[in-house]
């Protein structure tokens, strides 16, 4: 049996062997020889070559976003570059009593060297002593013996509200009082038990408004505007307790993935026992709210162990691959 | 935040309604509590008995038991009117007496007392009674250091009672759950291995005298704050309870006593009628307890309305406050509300505590959201602005940012960097739980080297940087310490890359408009010795004659000390000196 084929010349038939070019070269361009060459097909399905670049840390990209949001809302940044604080500013000036559990050595890092702060605005300090031990400014007070030795003890600040206290005191010394809007995003320290979501140090975000006649509705409205910029709508408020704010409200939002309300922040109106001894005028109210930087970041980037985000155990590949930070997306 | 475990069956019985978890959760949300279903392993109730764990605000001592929670919620739901708590002298006319002797001043000066007359316990209420004392001990009593509660079967002992303080060898009694008598010294020994009682021993251990309460026949009721006596212990059959609270803080002792009696007064034959007791002070004066103080506060309706951002009538406001447990009525034609603050609300210190309750009862989520008219021009903190600008530029130069811990071990900033701790001027932490929190860092190097260690498998070169605060002791600051903003960068590769780090330094200076100059008008680098760096490969960075930092190749011992194995060039400068 025989099989026969009929062959004819196709359009690409050539009697010389030619190789397909891979790339256009400078010579081809200047000599015009590209016109006679055929070029190999590109594989558009492969990836390109990543440019060599540096990378910013994911958490600090989020910090920059929050900074931006506060600035857009007209909030001035507080100077928070002081990790070491006295118990006076961290607790006493905030009307947090000296026998409060949070002042325990197992919640707070105390300093052995330098153990004590040595300078305070003494006139103000006496007013703080008074309001704690005997009351005044319309308050019953706590009815205990306030100790200067206790107030002098240095610690690693447990919240940036210590700086807020310093700033409000400073604002109160300016006569006449001018309304202020402050914010800060900086490190705080807690001597608690550590686990997957808790470290000894983390970043606190805090916003404060002090003005005449602010209402609870204003606090809620401000917090709402802030969270709207983060793309979080439909927030709810729950009664809570802080030693230095009354009313106090925890802020919740509905988490689609977990299908429940999750806490996204804390807020309140500073107590008169804190503001009046500072010398702030009677009609002035100070509203404040705060949240941690790490928690929303972990939720956004789906990080389950906080040590993957902050500290030396961070996976640099995660840092290299991390996208631009758009909190409202 | 304190939590109270409650049996759901008992809770729903008190509330008069069987709630789904969601319904109860919503109720808690509105009131200011947080509930979750208790896992079986929490081991509080009997197996098969469903429980809720309810988290209550730390300043609400009246919510630390199911009785208090149930009562407050019923009042909130308007299903119950807040009870009136009364303290009355006994039917016989003669109050129980507790005499405080002067020796107690050395160790635990204050005491208060009261009687729960004709009380009837059930298994649940008995357990709740013990639990409440425990919660109060942990919470307001600051683990018994401030106040200790002792409850006794009054029918097993004979007044008048004496509160004294005696040398430990002179105190001998049969303590709770013991089978024989021990002296106080022996009890201290015995309890030194008891995990439950051990934490309280140091409160009195080293004192010359220990507190002790005994009755007219010398029977010991308790040795506060450690343990009660077996003789007077409360059982399910106890009908009359003598309560004593000894303390170092009298204000808290009074609150604690009022809390215990108001909560459990509901089980007395005459509910909420508490029998008075007399406490005779060392100076002879007599004080009668419990005080159960009610006080009136008058609030201005339009003031409260303005502060919250609502507009309700005085009558409506009075109703809201009554729902929160403070009986109130509108007066002066509705312009004011007269509020009665009951003994169960020791948390109400100021007018703000009252108007907060108006807002809670109104519902935070029912308020109108407004934006304040506060007009301000925002300013950035200059150091932070500079930091963010530099971060972006160093990143553009090809370095990757790290974020490391501010606290570390002493070794990290000293031995591992071939320096002596005494030269570091570091701030030391008094109570570190582990080595990782011994000091606040004085240099950013250890953190970045540790990050290299954890990323050894990443492609080379590893070029990392960080701009963050270190801490130094500083007498010129009111607290004695200051932060300093540092910038650190490393090049970790098969070859050290000193020129890479030097190049980065040149770029930084260019960005900050500091020209290279040898004559003190700009910056230059000058060879120097530094034990952290390889000899001959380290330089001081001088800006206008002042040193702002160093750069160089790290010493091999530093490299191996951080469990690394490739050459590394590093740069660390004080950014504040370049502002």
Question: How would you describe this structure to a colleague?
Answer:
The complex is a heterodimer of chains A (329) and B (579). Chain A is an alpha+beta fold and 329 residues long. Chain A has helices spanning 26-31, 58-72, 87-90, 122-133, 148-152, 161-173, 216-228, 272-278, 294-300, 316-321, and strands at 76-77, 84-86, 111-113, 154-156, 180-189, 201-212, 236-239, 245-255, 260-270, 284-292. A seven-stranded mixed sheet of chain A has the order 1-5-6-10-9-8-7, with helices on both faces. In chain A, strands 2-4 form a two-stranded antiparallel sheet. In chain A, helix 4 (122-133) runs antiparallel to helix 8 (272-278). The mean pLDDT of chain A is 92. Chain B is built from 14 helices and 30 strands. The radius of gyration of chain B is 33 Å and the shape is elongated. With 579 residues, chain B is α+β, with helices and mostly antiparallel strands. In chain B, strands 13-12-11-8-5-16-17 form a seven-stranded mixed sheet, with no helix packed on it. In chain B, strands 21-25-26-30-29-28-27 form a seven-stranded mixed sheet, with helices on both faces. Chain B has a three-stranded antiparallel sheet with strand order 1-3-2. In chain B, strand 16 and strand 17 (286-289) form a beta hairpin. In chain B, helix 8 (314-323) crosses helix 9. Chains A and B meet through helix 2, strand 1, strand 2, strand 3 and strand 5 of A and helix 2, helix 6, helix 7, helix 9 and helix 10 of B.
Greatest interface: A-B, 102 and 99 residues
**What is the residue-mean pLDDT of chain B, rounded to a whole number?**
94
Query: Could you tell me how far the N terminus lies from the C terminus of chain B, measured between alpha carbons in angstroms?
Result: 44 Å
Shape of chain B: elongated
Average of pLDDT of chain A: 92
The CATH topology of chain A: BirA Bifunctional Protein, domain 2
Q: DSSP strand (E) fraction of chain B? A: 25-35%
Contiguous low-pLDDT stretches of chain A (5 residues minimum) are none
Beta-strand content bin of chain A: 15-25%
What characteristic shape of chain A results from the CA principal axes? elongated
Question: Which class best fits the helix and strand makeup of chain A?
Answer: alpha+beta
The biggest beta sheet of chain B is recorded as:
7 strands, mixed
Strand order of the largest sheet of chain B: 13-12-11-8-5-16-17
Task: Give the beta-strand count of chain A.
Answer: 10
Gap between N and C termini of chain A, in Å?
72 Å
Subunit arrangement of the protein: heterodimer
At CATH level 2, the architecture of chain A is 2-Layer Sandwich
The chain-level structural class of chain B is: alpha+beta
Domain Aminoacyl-transfer RNA synthetases class-II family profile (chain A): 61-312
InterPro entries (chain A): aa-tRNA-synth_II, aa-tRNA-synth_II/BPL/LPL, Phe-tRNA-synth_IIc_asu, Phenylalanyl-tRNA_Synthase
Subcellular location (chain A): Cytoplasm
Pfam family, one (chain A): tRNA-synt_2d
